[in-house]
Automatic annotation (TrEMBL), chain A:
<dbReference type="Pfam" id="PF00005">
    <property type="entry name" value="ABC_tran"/>
</dbReference>
<dbReference type="InterPro" id="IPR003593">
    <property type="entry name" value="AAA+_ATPase"/>
</dbReference>
<protein>
    <submittedName>
        <fullName>ATP-binding cassette domain-containing protein</fullName>
    </submittedName>
</protein>
<dbReference type="InterPro" id="IPR003439">
    <property type="entry name" value="ABC_transporter-like_ATP-bd"/>
</dbReference>
<dbReference type="InterPro" id="IPR050319">
    <property type="entry name" value="ABC_transp_ATP-bind"/>
</dbReference>
<feature type="domain" description="ABC transporter">
    <location>
        <begin position="3"/>
        <end position="248"/>
    </location>
</feature>
<dbReference type="GO" id="GO:0005524">
    <property type="term" value="F:ATP binding"/>
</dbReference>
<keyword id="KW-0547">Nucleotide-binding</keyword>
<keyword id="KW-0813">Transport</keyword>
UniProtKB/TrEMBL annotation, chain B:
<dbReference type="InterPro" id="IPR027417">
    <property type="entry name" value="P-loop_NTPase"/>
</dbReference>
<keyword id="KW-0067">ATP-binding</keyword>
<dbReference type="InterPro" id="IPR013563">
    <property type="entry name" value="Oligopep_ABC_C"/>
</dbReference>
<dbReference type="InterPro" id="IPR003593">
    <property type="entry name" value="AAA+_ATPase"/>
</dbReference>
<keyword id="KW-1003">Cell membrane</keyword>
<keyword id="KW-0813">Transport</keyword>
<dbReference type="Pfam" id="PF08352">
    <property type="entry name" value="oligo_HPY"/>
</dbReference>
<keyword id="KW-0547">Nucleotide-binding</keyword>
<dbReference type="GO" id="GO:0005524">
    <property type="term" value="F:ATP binding"/>
</dbReference>
Length: 270, 338
């Protein structure tokens, strides 16, 4: 197992109210090259898990083990290696790219930080190569994020993450802010990257249809607890928990007959 | 100045419906900041909504769907709106601002995506729902009584106690019900719902849709549901209009649009939605991105992304022509005489 999360607990202060425990004993594992979906509604703790994973906040209990290293207590070289191997793509491609940096600077920054390509010429080549990989034109490397559409910006964010050759990509709602016609492009790109580079993906999303498409394993969260986890076939084919079934039932299906049947069913219940 | 508009006859609502609202050649120009020039956001749109009809207006960011809806209520003061907007036989664009104030929240009401930024955090729920009526001169006790009735109708638990609560004490779904109550308390005949469920979790979205479904059926309320997500409206709408780059490209009954989409853009949108009930190896993706309104391609605005584009598509804006089950603006159909 490449990454294993065991017994994670996290509490946030909420003065003057009592502290709120947002994660209760959360455990799951991610294998190399696997796409794992972390699904839940708002308040389920999925983004807090991402923050703990990226070592942006500390859980009070539990451990996160990456390739034999305890990430929660890692320092120095171990932490630096972890920060290179695990990269993140955020939801908002408008807020997550520095507007004053060119595409080349954005994508090349990790190479500089981790001293991966020492010469400027080598860095340029590497940036051009990665831009081509994610479907962007290397001639655009001198442009700024503002001149790109949302979908292209998300490609830039993915290129930036992939430049340092990570083993895990943590994606927090990466397509939630994109137009429907562009969402599919980004999901296909993530799938290609997973297959091409053997990249493991931790895909955090509320959209179960997207998760079904991309992820082989799924962890369902509710109020900071793992309510169910299993393979795609288990979760979508025969969910064990009522909560999972309720989540699945509520996902709209783009088929009028199915949608109307759903509405009738609800009216029956109420 | 008249564009070569080739709409066939005047727009009609779906079958079996009497026209409630109608837009003819609706065009909206927005001034660009710091400049005298303007951008055409909505480019000559025709449509009609029937009494009690549920119509979805589907489009992506920059398609002009929200601007179209806001133009019906004349909400954007800076916008230059031309064409005709009729409601129950009256030309709304010809009304004075004072008359228009009576229409807003009266005949036509609107709900928006983000309930928290719409609600006043310092005002009680009861006062906010009653405000629409108070503005119209309804007495305090009467307005409060009617506010309570609407909250009950929207299945807000313990509504009587919660009239004196503040928005922060409500969950996201409950806040959306309050916003809906504010819109419905004036007993509108048309409700414009602009992405009302986009910010909500799926289970809450499902409940709000169910509520809208219920209220619309019980009150005979027409709903114009604006969304970017075809999946959301499949079970709710009777008719679907698809907008792309400021124009309506397809309009038809929900069944015919989903079963036989005529415009390649509609076809692509339907195919691009990942489905919870299917396994696919690869998602269909429409290449490129929607154009911004200031860079609308010539001819059919969709042509740079269309795999069926041919010479006329680059040159001429396709006319909106009748097809079986609705109408579509695509040269493929024009050339086939369909």
């Amino acid at each position: 197992m490449l990454l294993s999360v065991d017994g994670l607990c996290k509490t946030y202060a909420s003065f003057p109210n009592p502290p709120v425990q947002v994660l209760h004993d959360v455990s799951f594992g991610l294998d190399a090259g696997q796409a794992l979906g972390l699904v839940g509604e708002s308040g389920s703790g999925k983004s807090t898990i991402a923050k703990c994973l990226m070592a942006l906040t500390r859980p009070e209990q539990g451990s996160i083990t990456y390739d034999g290293t305890d990430v929660v207590r890692a320092r120095g070289a171990d932490l630096l290696r972890f920060r290179r191997d695990v990269q993140m793509v955020f939801q908002d491609p408008y807020g997550s790219l520095n507007p004053r940096m060119t595409v080349e600077e954005l994508v090349g920054e990790g190479l500089l930080v981790h001293r991966l390509e020492p010469t400027p010429a080598a860095r340029r080549d590497r940036v051009a190569e990665i831009l081509r990989t994610v479907g962007l034109n290397p001639d655009d490397r001198g442009r700024y994020p503002r001149s790109f559409s949302g979908g292209q910006r998300q490609r830039i964010a993915i290129a930036r993450a992939l430049a340092v050759q990570p083993r895990i990509l943590v994606c927090d709602e990466p397509v939630a802010a994109l137009d429907v016609s562009v969402q599919a492009q980004v999901i296909n790109l993530l799938q290609d990257m997973q297959r091409q580079f053997g990249l493991a993906i931790l895909f955090i999303a509320h959209d179960l249809a997207v998760v079904r498409h991309l992820c082989e394993r799924i962890v369902v969260l509710h109020k900071g607890r793992v309510v169910e986890q299993g393979t795609r076939a288990e979760i979508f084919g025969s969910p064990r928990e009522a909560y999972t079934r309720a989540l699945l039932d509520a996902v709209p299906v783009p088929d009028p007959a199915v949608g109307r049947a759903r509405r009738r069913q609800l009216q029956h219940q109420s | 100045m008249h564009m070569d508009r080739t709409f066939q006859g005047s727009p009609t609502p779906g079958p079996n419906a009497t026209t409630l609202a109608r837009a003819v050649g609706l065009t909206v120009d927005m001034p660009v900041q710091l400049g005298a020039s303007s951008v055409r956001i909505v480019d000559g749109v025709d449509f009609a909504i029937g009494v009690g009809e549920r119509v979805a207006l589907v489009g992506e960011s920059g398609s002009g769907k929200s601007v179209t809806a806001r133009a019906l209520m004349r909400l954007d003061r800076a916008a230059r709106v031309s064409g005709r907007v009729e409601f129950a036989g009256r030309d709304l664009l010809a009304l004075s601002e004072r008359e228009m104030t009576q229409v807003r929240g009266g005949d036509i009401a609107m709900v928006f995506q983000d309930p928290m930024s719409f609600l006043d955090p310092l005002m009680t729920i009861g006062d906010q729902v009653a405000e629409t009526l108070r503005i119209r001169g309804v007495g305090k006790a009467d307005a409060r009584r009617r506010a309570l009735a609407v909250l009950d109708e929207l299945r807000v638990d313990r509504a009587a106690e919660r009239l004196d609560a503040y928005p922060h004490e409500f969950s996201g779904g409950m806040r959306q019900r309050v916003v809906l109550a504010m819109a419905l308390v004036g007993e509108p005949r048309l409700l414009i719902a602009d992405e009302p469920t986009t910010a909500l979790d799926v289970r809450v979205q499902d409940q709000v849709l169910d509520l809208l479904d219920d209220v619309s059926a019980r009150r005979g309320l027409a709903v114009l549901f604006i969304t970017h997500d075809l999946g959301v409206v499949a079970g709710f709408a009777e008719r679907v209009m698809v907008m792309y780059s400021g124009r309506i490209v397809e309009d038809g009954s929900v069944d015919s649009v989903f079963a036989r989409p005529r415009h390649p853009y509609t076809r692509g949108l339907i195919k691009a939605v990942p489905r919870i009930d299917q396994d696919l190896d690869r998602l269909y993706a429409i290449p490129g991105a929607p154009p911004p309104p200031f860079a609308r391609p010539t001819g059919c605005a969709f042509h740079p992304r269309c795999d069926a584009a041919f010479a006329p598509c680059l040159r001429d804006v396709p006319a909106v022509l009748p097809v079986e089950g609705g109408r579509a603006a695509c040269h493929l159909h024009a050339s086939q005489g369909a």
